[in-house]
Every structure is written in structure tokens, then in C-alpha cells.
Amino acid sequence: MTESALTDSLEAPPRQGGWHGFAADWSSDQRAFKSATWGKAMIWIFLLSDTFIFSCFLLSYMTVRMSTTVPWPDPGKVFALTIAGREIPLILIAIMTFILISSSGTMAMAVNFGYRHDRVKSAVLMLATAAFGASFVGMQAFEWTHLILEGVRPWGNPWGAAQFGSCFFLITGFHGTHVTIGVIFLLITARKVLRGDFESGRRGFFTSRKGRYEIVETMGLYWHFVDLVWVFIFALFYLW
Amino acid sequence: MTQSTSVPGKNVGHQEGQQHPIKLYLIVWGWLFVLSTCSYLVDYFGIEGFLRWFLILLFMIVKAGLIVAIFMHMAWERLALMYAILVPPGAVLLFVAIMAFESDYTHFTRVAFFGTGSASAQTETLASAKPGPETGTATAPPDELKKEAEKHGPEVSKPEVASEGRNAALSDSAAATGEAGKTAPVSGSAAGAATTGEAGTTALASGNAVGVAAVHNDITAAAKAPEAKFYTLKPGDTLWKIAEAEYGLGHGGKYHLIFEANKSLLSDPGKVHPGQVLRIPPNSG
Predict the structure, then answer these.
(1) Which end of chain A has the lower number of beta carbons within 10 A, N or C?
(2) What separation in angstroms does the CA of B135 have from each of B63, B202, B225?
(3) CATH class in words for B228-285
(4) pLDDT tens, B89-117?
(5) What is the least distance, in Å, from the CA of B245 to any CA of chain A?
(6) What are the extents of the domains in chain A?
(7) A36-238 is classed in which CATH architecture?
(8) How far apart are CA A203 and CA A216, in angstroms?
(9) What is the pLDDT of residues A201-210, one digit of tens each?
(10) Residues 75-94, chain B: which have Cβ within 8 Å of A?
(11) ipTM score assigned to the predicted complex
(12) What is the SS3 assignment for B221?
């Protein structure tokens, strides 16, 4: 055993990489995730469990869509918007996709500036991320209203298979809830960063140890996951 | 990008988290935009078939990979974490295969047993009930006959009744003789039904039974009720569509009237099958 808690704090020998490293990391009574703190490992495991939830939703959507004998409504037409007298298919969804990707970009940079202790830049980028997220939720609310007025219900719709409504409301609703929660936590984290909670070690909700900006990355991991899920929803629900 | 967490003590920030040049994030960001545009264009230009699926899934996987690897920093984590997080979702692929097989089978059985419309039970000869001379109702109070009709009505839709023949005949003369009522109890009690609606629904139930090719309906009712319309479902029809066609555009929300009028046939407004014949009640409200 080359590693233990004791030698960890001293000058530790470089760790092996590849398969040998994989085996060594798991093979003894020690911290398995050497490159990640417990906080990071836990958010990853949370995201893994969330992956399974969304997988189950998308799977049940696939199952009902493949097994119904009634034609499935064409998402290209259902989600089309008329702009300047021309009907453009899926345009709102495309805009929502770009907004969410943009928010992922600003979030990645916020994490980076957080680790550089550049509080203002990090907080501003997080607020921008929150603004993108809020506009995404707003557009989703617009889309829901539009479809509800056209008569889409979880038990039926004017165009075809009744399961369309239930899948749509479940999947986008659950994703929208994730985005909303993300926006709330982004605002909380941005405020903490701006106030310098992570420099002063001020005690509080989600405030970690002094001088550590890891919570920004945790926030970032959650936010990127929300974007990641949207990539799958966009491809499988809207483009199928 | 040259940094790796396995190299100790590079800088202070490094011990806490990963540091990568901002440029890297901007490049990935740009690529995500390009890939999203590409997948949108697949739909915009209406590419279909295998190529559509290939392109959509390819762009999806590349985008997901970029987000996880760069934005979520998974590319710089150690294998122990990578495998712990990335391998379990692989089980989902197996799940996808199982469910695809299952839904294929479900679709097959639905087509085989319920039909998609072309080969299923079609009722053509249904006429709306006309007032005329009544023989069956004279001997019994209407309420009792109504109960009788309700008791026997659902039986019509059972396969054993249908298996008696391809054509189910409902005739009021059967009820009049009384004897025929034993061999065809359904016909007898249906004839006794006092109102147009009652008779109509019973006849409809026979029409929707599996294996019945045509329903010949001679039922006559004593009371003159408002003319009821009937509608044979075509593939792709929904209650909403029918309501819009019958009650006018924008009145699709009245589909519940049709559903209420055909509750004995429909368990759920979304579950209608081509070939079913529905009674369309007059527009109220």
C-alpha cells in the first residue's frame, strides 16, 4: 500500500494513471476519488441519479411513442412559430437551445474566475447565467401557454396520439423545474461570491471553508447537467 | 490543458480546483453552437430516414460529450471517478433495447387485435332510429326494459356473442315473439329500450365487437327523440377533431359531450379506435 491518510498530507509520490491507477484507487480502505473532494463526488453521484430519472422519462416516452397505433403529432408543426408572416418550424425550441448553451458557457467561465478569486467577474457571469436560465423558463412558460390554448392536455390533443401531451408536460415540466431551481441557487451563490463569503469564511447555508470556491463548481456541475439533459430532450423529443 | 491533477503542486489555485484557459471554454462554446445549429438544420431541411437519425444522434452525443468532458471537467478527473459516473448510464442502453423490443411487440399486438382501421369492424348500415310502430314495449314498463337493456347491452361487445356470426342482427320482431328472446337475449332487450339513445348505444356496442362485420339495425323506438347523428372513426381521428368538425372550429373543447354520450363504449377520451361508431349528441351550450 503506497498511500494512506498519513502520507497523503506529506509529499505524496505521484499517483499512477490508467488501469493501474484505477485499480489502486479502488483497492484499499481509502478515499476512492483522489481528484475530487467529497462535495464534488457527491454532486456527481446526485447527477448520476438524476440521469436515471430523466432516462426513465425519455424511455417511457419512447415506449408509448413506438407502441401507439395513432399517428404522433409532428413536433416541427406543433412547435412552429409564425414570424413575419412565415411559419418557421421549431424556432422557439432552437432559440431556447441556444440560450441554454450560452448559459452553460457563462457558467463555465464563472467557475474559472471563481477559482482565480476574481469575485466580481465570477458573480457577474453567474448572474448572466441566471438571466439566461430565467429567460429559458419564461420561454417555456410561453410555449406551455401556447400549447394549452391550442388544446393540448395530458390526456389528449387535437393532432393525434394522446400520449403526446403527457410526455411533453412531464419531460419539459421536470426539466423546467430543474432550471428554475438552478436559477434560484445561482442567485444565492452569486450573492455569496459577491459579498465575499468564501474569502471571509462567513458561516451560512452552503458556505464552505475559507478561501474555497468549490461551491461555484458544484453549482456549475448542476447547471451543465441541466443543459446536458436539454441536449437529449431537444434531440429525442423535438427532432424525432 | 497541459495541466493534470496528477501533477502535484503546480499553483495555488490548482490544489483547490481546475484551471484551464478561458479560450478553451470559448472554443467549446462555439462548437456547441455550431452543433446545435446543425441539428436544427437537419429538421429545417427535412432530412428523413436513416440519415436523419444518424445525424441527430451524432450531434447529440458529440454535444453531450463536450459538455461533460470540458464544461464539467470530467476529462481531467481520474479514471476512478470517470468510470463510477459514466459507466452506470450505459445500463440505460440495455433498458432502451428491452423497451424498444417491448413496444414493438405491443404495437404488433395492437395492430393484430384492434386493427388500424382498414380491416377492423366497420358499421355502415346504422341508421338513426326512426319513430314507428312499437311491439315490444307494450307489455312491460319502460323502466324495466331499460334496466334489461343495460344488463345485456355490454355483453354484445364480448367475443362469444360476436362469434355466433359475422352479422349481428338486432330486430324488434325477435322481442315480440318472446321465444327468440332466449336465443338472442340482447336483441330482445335492445328492442325494448324506450329511447333512441338507448337503442343506438346498444347497436353501437354490437358494431364495435370484434369480428362483427356489419350490424343490421331494425330497432324502432316509441318515443320521438331528437335525431342523433353517428360518426364512424377514421384512422387518425380524435374526439377533439370530431368535435371541431361537428360543432365548428374552435369548439374542440366540446369533445367531452361526445365522450359523455358514448361513455359505455369509451373508457378514456384518448382511447378511440378507427372503426368505432360514436353517437354525436346535439350541440348544447
Answers:
(1) N
(2) 75, 18, 18
(3) alpha beta
(4) 999 999 999 999 999 999 998 888 876 54
(5) 11
(6) 1-32, 36-238
(7) Up-down Bundle (1.20)
(8) 16
(9) 777 776 666 6
(10) 76-81, 83-85, 88-89, 92
(11) 0.84
(12) strand
